[in-house]
Amino acid sequence: MRPFFTLLMFSLVASIATAQATSPAPVPYPVLKLNGTVLFHGDSITDGGWLRNSGDLNHIMGQSYPYLVASRLGLELADRNLTFVNRGVGGSGITAIGTGDALKLKPCLVSIATGINDCLPYLGNPAKGGLSAEGYEAAYDKLINAFRTALPATRLVLVAPYVLDKEGSERDVTRRAGLKPYQDAVARLGAKYGIPVVRLQPAFDEALKIAPARHWCWDGVHPTYAGHAILAREWLKAVAAMPADDAK
């Protein structure tokens, strides 16, 4: 019986190995289609000084996480001929974003990263601008529906706002508490529409165990190059997990 059992086990192992060898490898970033465009919307964190109305391909993405994302995926997915477009505008909030660029570009994916410019002015002095957390959520909901109506095949990823301590300041305590309802609003909208949310606050909090806030964000809001690497890493993780087709 032993020779028969050994032969049987050998056959099973060989069959499994053959099946594994012939199974197609999973497609990385399946949501990013051949010849597709990825469009980034956001505020100064996204903006990164990208050159407007310029054919200088050396500077069109700015010095921010969209550049890091584009450089990595442009290398890893070179055969897909992807195009990356930065439309971040420093100082803007959720109501400054529209579907105009997306209607022209027909992107396969739109990334939206706002909140800090809606939150901090409102908390400091509502007369200076910004939106309440409730107003922010309502405006964001309206924007998502506008994208879904105008471009039903385009997928979205939402980047939640974050805040860190400014060196030598205690503002982080009050700013973080004030920002949380806005972060929660993004989380609720992601759950409501089945859209992935890039949650940056936990990622930065974890990074604070390694280096102080000034290493990641020089003023508590705007990232250093190391901070942008965190944004890019978390964004890539979220997008990598998106299936090829929207289930909703």
Strand content: 5-15%
Structure annotation, total helices: 10
Low-confidence stretches: 15-21
Indicate the multimeric state: single chain
Which CATH class applies here?
Alpha Beta
Can you describe this structure in just a few lines?
By secondary structure, the protein is an alpha/beta fold.
What does this structure look like?
With 248 residues, the chain is α/β, with parallel strands linked by helices. It has one domain: 3-Layer(aba) Sandwich (Rossmann fold). It has a five-stranded parallel beta sheet. Helix 7 links the parallel strand 4 and strand 5.
List the topology elements:
Layout: H1 2-22, E1 37-42, H2 44-47, H3 65-76, E2 83-86, H4 100-105, E3 109-113, H5 116-124, H6 133-150, E4 155-159, H7 171-193, E5 197-198, H8 200-207, H9 213-216, H10 225-240
Parallel strand pairs: 1-2, 1-3, 3-4, 4-5
Helix pairs in contact: 3-10, 5-7, 6-7
